[in-house]
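Project standup — Tuesday

K.O.: blocked on the structure for the chain from last sprint. Re-posting the sequence here as requested.
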Amino acid sequence: MKYLTMDTTTRVTALALGEEGKLVAEGFLHTSKTHSERLIPMLDQLLTAASWRLQDLDFIGVVRGPGSFTGIRIGIATAQGLAEVLDLPLIGVLSLDTLAWAGYGRNEAIVPILDARKNEWYTAGYFWNASRQYPECHIKPQAIEPQRWLEECRRLERPILFVGDAVARYAELISGILGTQAILLPDYLALPRGAFAVQEVWKRYKDHPQGEKVEPYYIRLSEAEVTWAKKEEANQKGNG
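H.V.: unblocked you, prediction finished:
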């Protein structure tokens, strides 16, 4: 089974081609260009390099959040468009689950941290299952203030591997609170990669081979939704 994965939940555009859970080709761009400018050219390059055609794909996977609201929408819209045109099943996975693969086979707790702005992180906690096949989520995805989350992490009383786009920015804070309990990966290992998505999408596809309805996973409301809710509340009070 051949498939394409897309991850546009952060500033990184991460595309990959996979086959039966094996990484075949990977694209990674962390530049100032937008996802909409990068996605299709990257896809063309990957297909050419792998000597694949779109018609060779058996399904498509996309990372549906949490992360950048705009990035999530671009990734899902592109994946949905391709899946519809090619008549292929579509699979959606979470960014935090996907990032947990950066700690493949390690014994530490794995904690993805994505910059949610407003001095918050999107985060969750993972451990590898007994059979060492995939990371299992033990602390549900949430948006939380960094210092509060680090204080909670300290209670785990075991080494913690941090991954995600917030690692570099908050390295000093993490080390200041957790000291040697924290393991911080460099950007080239901590940021979203197509290789991680290839594994997570394949795992989910085996349980959903028919595909599924893929919707954005935001955790919290977007700024536009918050503004709209406030206006509606004000209107209701005015009418009351």
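K.O.: great, moving the ticket to review. The chain is about 35% helix and 25% strand. Strands lie at 2-7, 13-19, 22-29, 59-63, 90-93, 109-117, 120-128, 135-144, 160-163, 182-184.
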